[in-house]
Design brief:
The structure holds 2 protein chains of 2 kinds. Chain A is mainly α. Chain A contains 3 helices and no strands. Chain B is mainly α. The chains are: A mainly alpha, B mainly alpha.
Chain lengths: 115, 135
């Protein structure tokens, strides 16, 4: 198989993994952020921020995988897939660290009157 | 068998094994996290994060190319596949050990908090000591 087909297959698998992660994580993340932030708009802001960071981190990792690819096409596609999965895992680690820190600090104060 | 087929076959086995572990662990972990976190929202988030972490660790180790080389003779392909399987099992086992360790620490903290609350409740039920005699 050619390098192009294998790279496209690896990118499709990585995109499917990212979509699956987002589908699995976003609803519970929204619920826990709503509990921690107390306000719907604050929770939505942090949820969107996290989604953007995860997608951007995954894209950066995929580009690093393209740069670090070995000569053999199958191994190059595997490297691309692995780097992308590593990017998703790093994004997940950041989300977990942020939620754990927010949980330890307790819920946010309610918004100021008239604010 | 060429390198692409061998690698894809072992990676598919790895993905299936990871999915099996995640499906087996999910209901038990959910009950335990409900006890530990105290609210369904927190338990749901930690369940999703833990299962995603396990799945990503499994997939990362299933796509390892440590044992493969560029020449790809059948003997080396076999050794590469075995090496890929070994890394997969090490990754799955390692991630399970990490999850079990974190849960153990959380359970220990929960027990200590419960003992502290029980002690404080018992102290509140004890009547205050009598006032010292007046000179």
């Amino acid at each position: 198989m050619s390098l192009g087909v294998l790279t496209a297959a690896a990118l499709a698998v990585a995109a499917a993994a990212l979509t699956l992660c987002a589908r699995v994580l976003l609803r519970p993340l929204d619920a826990v952020l709503l509990e921690l932030c107390r306000e719907r708009h604050r929770a939505e802001f942090w949820t969107h921020m996290v989604t953007t960071c995860m997608v951007a981190g995954t894209l950066v990792a995929a580009l690093m995988g393209v740069l670090a690819a070995p000569a053999q096409p199958a191994l190059a596609a595997a490297s691309l897939l692995r780097w992308t999965l590593l990017g998703i895992a790093a994004g997940l680690a950041v989300v977990v660290a942020v939620v754990a820190a927010m949980g330890r600090r307790g819920p946010c104060p309610p918004p100021a009157e008239g604010g | 068998m060429d390198l692409t087929l061998t690698f894809s076959l072992v990676a598919a086995i790895g993905a299936a094994a990871t999915a099996l572990v995640v499906l087996l662990l999910r209901p038990h972990l959910h009950r335990l996290l409900l006890d530990l976190c105290g609210s369904p929202a927190r338990a749901g988030f930690w369940l999703a994060a833990t299962l995603l972490g396990l799945g990503l660790c499994g997939l990362l180790s299933a796509t390892s190319t440590l044992g493969y080389s560029d020449d790809g003779t059948p003997h080396e392909l076999f050794l590469g596949g075995v090496s890929q399987l070994r890394v997969l099992l090490i990754g799955l086992l390692g991630s399970l050990v990490v999850v079990a360790w974190v849960l153990g620490v959380a359970i220990k903290g929960l027990q200590q908090r419960a003992e502290r609350h029980a002690y404080l409740d018992a102290m509140k039920r004890v009547p205050p000591p009598p006032a010292p005699p007046q000179p």
